[in-house]
Each structure stands twice: as C-alpha cells, then as structure tokens.
Here is the input.
Amino acid sequence: MRSFCSPLKSLMSRLKQPLLSLLFIASPVLAQSWELVWSDEFSSGIGADWVFEEGTGSSGWGNNELQYYRQNNASVVNGELVITARRESFNGSDYTSARLKTQNRKSFQYGKIEARIAVPSASGLWPAFWMLGNSFASEGWPQCGEIDIMEHVNDEQNIHGTIHWQDHNDEYANYGGSQNLDPTQFHVYSIEWDASLIKWFVDGNQYHEASIANGVNGTDEFQGEFFLLLNMAVGGDWPGFDINEGALPAQMRVDYVRVYQQGNSDASSRSSSSTSSSSASSNSSATVFERVLEAENYSDMSGVQIETTSDTGGGTNVGWIDDGDWLSYANINIPANGRYEITYRVASPNGGQLSLDQNAGEVVLGTHTIPATGGWQSWASVTRAVELNAGTYDFGVYAASGGWNINWWRIVSLGGSASSSSSSISSSASSSGSSSSSNNGGVCNWWGTEFPLCVTIETGWGWENSKSCISPSTCESQ
Here is the structure.
C-alpha cells in the first residue's frame, strides 16, 4: 500500500517489472520452527506500539488518494481491529478512513509476519497490510523498500503481494503476485522473509516468491529493518476514482497481527523497539500451525441446522443448538505436542456452554462459557488455551448448555511443549466433573500450570506486562 510522496508512483510504474531473476514458485508451506516475538491480538484495545497517521499526506499520500486519515475511524469491536472508511466531509476531504503504523516503535528484520484479515469488496476501496523500511524517513521511497503482504482493490476476487524498491540502475522496480479468493472472508495473510527469499502465503499456502539473495537486482533494501502498516484508502491511482458510495461505511477487520522469528537468536533474525515493552512475547519455539474450520463443514452432527449469517464475510453459520447437540469434524491433524489456542466465533442472546473433545469424548479438552453477546447474530470471538498431543483426531464440539450459534472455530499453535500428562489431566477433569482452576493471589492454575490473572479483560486470554494472562471468568470456566 503506497502512501508516500513520489513522482515515480503511478499506475504505469506499478506495471513495470524488473527484467532479472526474481522468482515465483507456488507450493504448500512447510512447517518451520518459529518464535513469537511480537503481536497485537486486539483483545483489550489497540496496542501501544501503533501510531496513527493523520491528514491527506502529500499528493494524497503519493497516490492521489481521496480520504482523510483519522484515529476516530479505528476501533476495537469484539476483539477485532476495525478500520472504517466513511463518506463524510472532513477538513476538505469527502471521505475518511484510518492508517496505523509501528514506525519508531517496533521494527523487524526477517521473520514470519502475518495477520488474519477480512476486507470489503467495492469499487474505489484499497485496504492493505504492508511494511516500509526504517530508512524511509531518511532516504524516502522507493529507496527504503516496501513489502506489501496483502493488498486488495475494488471488487476483485483476488489479493496482491508485492515488493517495491530502487534497483541496481537507480530506477523504480516492483515484483508481485496475486491469489484468487473471496477477500470478504477472513484469511491469514503472511510472508516468510530471510536474507535470501521473501515468500507470500494465504492460509498457509504459498503463492509467490522473490529472491533478494546478495542484493540481486539492487534489492539490498530488504536486508534491513521494516515497520508495519495497516490502512484502507479510498480512491487513488490504482483503484481509480469510481467510488461505490453505496458500500460505505465499509470495514476492514483485523483479528490479530503476529511476528515470528527463527528460534535461535542470531544476527540473521532480529527485531528492535524504541519502547520498553511489546504487545506480546514468547520464549518458546513452536511449529507454526493454524486450522480454521467453518462450523457448517462438519462431518457429522446431531440436532443442529444451518442458516445465513450476518457475521463479517457473510456465508452461513450453525444454529438451533440445544442442550446435548453436537458437531463432529473428522481427521484433523495436530502436527506436534504443545500448547494451542482454540477460538470460537459465537453469538448468543443469553449465553451457554460448549465443550471440545477428541475421538468421541475419549479426551475432553475442557468446557468454555459462551457469553451473552446481545443476539443470535451479534458475534464475538472467545478463546481458551489447551494442551494437544500430536496425531490425527476427530474433534467434537458439544453443547453442554445450548442457546448459541457458531460461525467458525480455529486452532493455532502457541509454542511450548505439552506435558506428558496433558491427556490424563483432561480425562480426569472429565470423569470427575470438577474444575482444576484456582484463583490464589491473582494466579490461575490452568490444568496444572500457573498463569497470572488478566486485569484488563474479562474473558479469554491476553497479554499484560509482556506475559500471557487468563481472565478470571475463563479461569473459573474450566
């Protein structure tokens, strides 16, 4: 997402391709060992490492964009960052939106950078998740280098991943790829970046690759540190100026942003910060794994029905869930022993309870309290952490107490090793029907491991003082 001042930045220059050896290879992602070094889960607001751009920039942020960026157009709703583009007159502009960056707060050299995002699809809109080199302030663009992790324009059914730089002939250059998909649905967009390659992924599947080894074609820019940006432009040189005002206000939703680096702390992979703390950190290496399951894609069920949902991205959800109803999802492979985060996208007028198990109740993974969200189509994400052993399982979602809808659920690896007794602890908790948690002096005993209790959130997991914490209500819901 170009938002800088440069006469080189035009639609024609976007189409210019370098003539030397940048590579494109499509292949599935291979598991690697990564360490989570920074994240914003937006569980209790927008993290302190983000700063807001304000105004119209020079020449519409270098692209003749039409919006006025305001902090008021960004908010957190149900644990998601929401950037809203509006048709409104403000300080001489006809549209407003928001743009966030981590410049001078957090920057990274190499790693796996990812976000789970859903964007609107309408003429004139240009949402993006991208990076600029730290030298932007001193050298400008394109000398600083730019990595676009995800861009979407207009109502296309695809997204773009691109790098921009000043090449070995001191000319502007870019190299990009695209992937067909429905951008209004949530997808995980990521790059894996080291001294030799930048690879682009959607939902763990690689679709593009560029070589930067030894500064080939003048790509030395990509050997330095970069900061993150999130924004949604209205109009501009790329999407054009035919704005579908009937689609406004339009929302770009970001579930999380995470940065991983290789588990060994050598000079080939590092991050830096001008602040004393980060939004999240981890000292455990982990095999990066994520699996998102649409609720209606069950392999078997009892007592439920499917309906159209008003949740972000549309589609369908599972509803009419009563006490004792269940959903089964077959042949889900867990790649390694360890700690995983389970997130459920739910809606409920009065609340309820669900439990998750493996292999028809052989291993019970715990019960989660579903909050009253305000209605059958008022959606919220609720999260808990569990210990899982490697293997292929049938997972079951059981309504211990009905009265709720579910749109999707997700499994994400968090890092750390599963204890050898994790399965027996789960089985024991199931047979006794009792909770393993205790609240003693601000500490939650979560299945035999102590975590601090969160102060700023009431349900789920979060990060406070650079440590993972568990909310009091989630602790008590075990």
In short: Confidence is low (pLDDT under 50) at residues 2-31, 264-269, 275-287, 416-441. Helices lie at 11-15, 60-64, 136-139, 422-432, 472-476. DSSP finds five helices and 36 strands in the chain. The first strand starts at residue 27 and ends at 28.
